[in-house]
Specification:
Blueprint: H1 2-25, E1 35-43, E2 48-56, E3 62-68, E4 75-79, E5 84-93, E6 100-106
Antiparallel strand pairs: 1-2, 2-5, 3-4, 3-6
C-alpha cells in the first residue's frame, strides 16, 4: 500500500510541475520598454468600439500584434518610431469593457 501511495504522490507532483510550466509559458511576452499601451471604449449608439492606443518612444519601427479578450483574432500593425497608433479591435460590441493583448517586436 505504501508503494502505491508513493507512486500516486509522485504522479501528482509531476502533474503539478507540468501545469506550472504550462501556465508560466502562457503569459504574454513583455513589451519593449519604449511601447506604451492604453485602451479606450467609445459608445456609438449601437454598441461600443474597443480602441487600443500604442505610443512609441522607440528609435526604430515596432511590429505589433493587437487582440483582446473580446476580439481574439490579432491585427498586425506597424508603429513608426516616436509615433502613436490607434487600433480598433471591435466595432459595435455589447461589451463595455475589454482586455487588450499586445505583443511587439522592434524592427532593426
Amino acid at each position: 500500500m505504501t508503494n502505491r501511495l508513493s507512486f500516486a504522490i509522485g504522479c501528482l507532483s509531476l502533474s503539478a510541475a507540468a501545469l506550472l510550466s504550462v501556465s508560466a509559458s502562457a503569459e504574454p511576452p513583455a513589451l519593449p520598454a519604449c511601447i506604451e499601451v492604453s485602451q479606450e471604449v467609445r459608445y456609438r449608439g449601437i454598441g461600443y468600439d474597443h480602441v487600443v492606443h500604442l505610443a512609441s518612444s522607440c528609435t526604430t519601427v515596432a511590429s505589433c500584434s493587437v487582440a483582446s479578450d473580446v476580439a481574439p483574432d490579432p491585427v498586425q500593425v506597424a508603429v513608426p518610431a516616436g509615433a502613436q497608433v490607434e487600433v480598433v479591435t471591435m466595432r459595435g460590441s455589447p461589451a463595455r469593457e475589454f482586455k487588450p493583448r499586445v505583443s511587439c517586436n522592434l524592427v532593426l
